Structure prediction request, 73 residues.
Amino acid sequence: MAQSVAPPTVSAPAVPAKLPLAAIAPWAVFFGILMLVLLYFVGAEQGATSVFNGTDIHEWVHDARHLLGFPCH
Ligand SMILES: [Zn+2]
Prediction:
């Protein structure tokens, strides 16, 4: 007796949700500026340039500065 086997169902691939670029753009700019400020403090503050007096910021970011290859001392 022949048994009929149903063919496997093929589901349509999931379509990723579209990202609203207009909603993301302000956050992207904000975090971009935040990263540039962080890069400045890690790479240049109290080294090549100095906004704040003393060496506290330099001491806090010193290892990261060497890790990223910024000239230090
Ligand atoms: Zn150093």
Residues 24-67 form one domain. The helical segments are 21-43, 56-68. Residues 62, 66, 72-73 surround zinc ion (CB under 6 Å).
